[in-house]
Each structure stands twice: as structure tokens, then as C-alpha cells.
């Protein structure tokens, strides 16, 4: 049956698709885990912050991207589902306004609940929001600056965790730095590998990326290297964090078959990318188990 495009249900569905529902947990969980493990409590800031990083944050990040990437998305067969909405131009304003309207009240509440006790958290939140906008908005478009694109994308996922640590007043230790560095390398690897499947449409659309600059095969190998380094860094987080080093292995295995993929066949890496998306759920579960062990056995 053909879907009837009648508001508000159709508009709501398109707005939600633009926020990448499969990725909601990737930003909400790092904040919540960092905050709870550091403070040991469930409070208003945890609830509000988790809600913000769950939906509005992703709606801002991906919605802005879908609006300003509309022309290139027309040539991308992946768009129009869970990997990204193919937004009707008439919905561009709706998506942007929805992101701002849903984010602002929660941001205000977060600042109120956080208070002035940890001013560094304000800076982290500002950097996080800047990265969200800078990735796609005209005039900045960090997504079209090779290497910078992967750094910015990783910031999108690591900054919620850093904010959670900062606002909770976490003590910076070598183990914590190793964990954050590993997380950042994981984020860079994930972005780089995800960019491989879009080499052809990005080049046709005149969009630069780490994959269009390095080529498909070299980008896949770089992603594998970053995941491997992330696993090594986890060995320096102490017990039981070092157990997480093995979590890099499934990602490496998912990307390995594409280490020699040609630019012309780069779209075949989408099969590995789909496995990556589901691996995140398994990894999230195992990380949760490790966090429980962390609470029971003590800090890294």
C-alpha cells in the first residue's frame, strides 16, 4: 500500500528518520555511563542530559546534515531509510526547527542543574554543539575536509562522554585518558569506514571526504589500524577495562574483507557497514557489563 503523506504522522516519521534512530544510543549511552559511573547517582541532570543526547542532539546533528546534503543524497541509494532520511525539500525547515525547539529547553535545564560548579563542562558542551553544526553547515562544512571530517565525527560521539565526566567532576587519570583516546580512535575509524561506501556518489556530487582523498582501500586499512590502536589503548585502562580491548576485534573482522576494495566497488563496503551498525548494540551490551564490573570492583 502506498504511504499517504498526510501530516502530522508522515512529517513526524520523516523527522525521526532524519535523527538516525539506530544511532540514538551511541550518544546517549556515553553521557549516561560516564555520569553514573562518576557520581554513582541518578538525578535530574542525568535524566535531562540523557534525553538531550538521545534524540534532540541526533536530530540536530543528522538533520542539519540531511538538509545541506540534499543534492548529493539524491544520488545516494542508501538514503531514505535507517541510514539517513531522503528529506523532501518541504521538510527542511521542519527538521531544523524541530532540532532547535526540542534541544533548547533541555540545554537550558542542563545548564541550570549543572550550575557553575564545573565550568569546564560548559566548554565541552559548547565544543560538542559547535562540532554538530560545523560538520555540515555552509561556510564550515568540516565533513568536506579530509581527516578533519573523521575528527569532527568522532567528537560527536566522544564529547557526550567527556561532558558527562566534566559535569560530574571526574578525576582525570592515565587510565581515563587512555579510555577516551581509545574511544576517539574508534570514532575516527567508524567514520572513515562509513565514508568508504559513499566514495562514488561523493565524488559525483563534488564532496570531499577522507575516503575520496585516500581512496577506498587505504581508508579501510586506516580504519582497521585505528580500531587496532583503540584496542591496544584499552589495555592501559586497568582492570576490568582492559577486557574491552577484545571489543575491537569484531570491528576489524567486519572491515577486513574490504581492505583491498577498489574505488569503483566501494559501495560493496555497505555490507560491512551494516554489520558495524549491529555490532554497536552487542558492544554496548558488553560495555555495560564491564561498567557494572567497574562499579563492583573499583575504578580503573
UniProtKB/TrEMBL annotation:
UniProt-listed InterPro entries: Prenyltransferase_related, UbiA_prenyltransferase, UbiA_sf
Subcellular location, record wording: Membrane
Membrane topology: Multi-pass membrane protein
Predominant location category: membrane
UniProt feature coiled coil, ranges: none
Transmembrane segments: 21-38, 44-64, 95-116, 122-140, 161-186, 224-256, 277-297
Keywords on record: Membrane, Transmembrane, Transmembrane helix
Protein name: Prenyltransferase
Organism: Cryobacterium breve
Lineage: Bacteria, Bacillati, Actinomycetota, Actinomycetes, Micrococcales
Amino acid at each position: 500500500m502506498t504511504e499517504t503523506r498526510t501530516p502530522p504522522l508522515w512529517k513526524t516519521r520523516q523527522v525521526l528518520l532524519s535523527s538516525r534512530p539506530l544511532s540514538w544510543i551511541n550518544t546517549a549511552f556515553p553521557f549516561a555511563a560516564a555520569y553514573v559511573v562518576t557520581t554513582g547517582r541518578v538525578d535530574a541532570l542525568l535524566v535531562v542530559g540523557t534525553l538531550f543526547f538521545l534524540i534532540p542532539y541526533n536530530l540536530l546533528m543528522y538533520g542539519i546534515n540531511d538538509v545541506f546534503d540534499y543534492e548529493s543524497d539524491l544520488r545516494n541509494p542508501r538514503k531514505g531509510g535507517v541510514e539517513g532520511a531522503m528529506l523532501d525539500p518541504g521538510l527542511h525547515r521542519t527538521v531544523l526547527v524541530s532540532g532547535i525547539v526540542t534541544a533548547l529547553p533541555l540545554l537550558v535545564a542542563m545548564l541550570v542543574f549543572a550550575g557553575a560548579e564545573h565550568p569546564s563542562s560548559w566548554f565541552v558542551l559548547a565544543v560538542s554543539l559547535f562540532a554538530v553544526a560545523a560538520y555540515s553547515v555552509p561556510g564550515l562544512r568540516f565533513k568536506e575536509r579530509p581527516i578533519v571530517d573523521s575528527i569532527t565525527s568522532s567528537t560527536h560521539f566522544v564529547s557526550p562522554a567527556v561532558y558527562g565526566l566534566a559535569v560530574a567532576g571526574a578525576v582525570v587519570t592515565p587510565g581515563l585518558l587512555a579510555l577516551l583516546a581509545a574511544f576517539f580512535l574508534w570514532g575516527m575509524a567508524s567514520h572513515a569506514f562509513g565514508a568508504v561506501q559513499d566514495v562514488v556518489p561523493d565524488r559525483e556530487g563534488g564532496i570531499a571526504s577522507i575516503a575520496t582523498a585516500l581512496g577506498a582501500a587505504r581508508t579501510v586499512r586506516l580504519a582497521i589500524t585505528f580500531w587496532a590502536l583503540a584496542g591496544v589503548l584499552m589495555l592501559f585502562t586497568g582492570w576490568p577495562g582492559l577486557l574491552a580491548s577484545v571489543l575491537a576485534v569484531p570491528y576489524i573482522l567486519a572491515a577486513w574483507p574490504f581492505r583491498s576494495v577498489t574505488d569503483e566497488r566501494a559501495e560493496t563496503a555497505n555490507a560491512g557497514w551494516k554489520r558495524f551498525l549491529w555490532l554497536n548494540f552487542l558492544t554496548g551490551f558488553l560495555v555495560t557489563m564491564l561498567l557494572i564490573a567497574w562499579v563492583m570492583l573499583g575504578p580503573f
